[in-house]
Amino acid sequence: MAIGIDKAAGIGLTHQINEKQKTLSKTHEKLATGKRINHAQDDAAGLAVAKLLEAMSRGYKADSVNIGDAMSAMNIAEGATQGISDMLGRMQELSIQASNDTLNDSDRKNLDTEFQELKKEITRLTSGTQFNTQDLLTGSSPLSDGTGRFQVGPNHTNGLGGISANEIGAPESRLTAEQLGLGDLNILSRDGATKSMDSINQANKTVIGNREIFGSTYNRLEYAYNNNANMDINTSAALSLIEDLDLAKGAMDKARDEILGQSAILAQRNFQEVSRNSMLALLGS
Fold this sequence. Notes:
Strand order of the largest sheet: 1-2
Helix content: over 70%
Largest sheet: 2 strands, antiparallel
Shape: rod-shaped
Radius of gyration: 39 Å
Structural class: mainly alpha
Number of domains: 2
């Protein structure tokens, strides 16, 4: 009967040693990864919340890339409008000169040569102003025809005017010479020069209006970027509280588990030695 009890006690000690080894192995894993939750069995509810927060954080990071690209597009477009305004200013100067009757037809023809070249350059500039191969000033792509959307939030929610609350619309912009009403203008005559002055003045108002819209959209995107970064920081902090390991506690757990494991092994050795001596004593008797 005594031998049966010894056998049961030995099995119990072996089980304790195995359990301590498993616990120590988990502690080593947590220390290696720096995470309190590595598997669902560590904390099923915590893991579910952590994965949702992780997805949101990754969404915020993707949104930051989107917003950065949109800001770059607005910068490119706004810079191009400055060039268009400069050319319109020069065309206005030429029109004013050509409207003066101190000039003859030959003089006006010389002025009109530059005038026409500037119109061509406006169209070339607008057609060549692109972001990721999409026109920004011709109204021929989502980034300039008023249908484009910049995704600036991690999900799609209902908003006003068919735009999600997490979307910002790309401004409409149509600034080729034809679209500005400059296509048929010339300054070969006094009447032509006078007509050109009025048309150029209206065209410049349109360009300046677009420039203001680009600037306003950029500012809005910048605020969205800053808010998005703040949301990412706070979400990451919440994720860290749930998922990350308290390294000090982890180190204490490791030391405790090692001591308990060593104690269990020592107890097993002592038990085996006692059992062996008892068996020898029994056989000797």
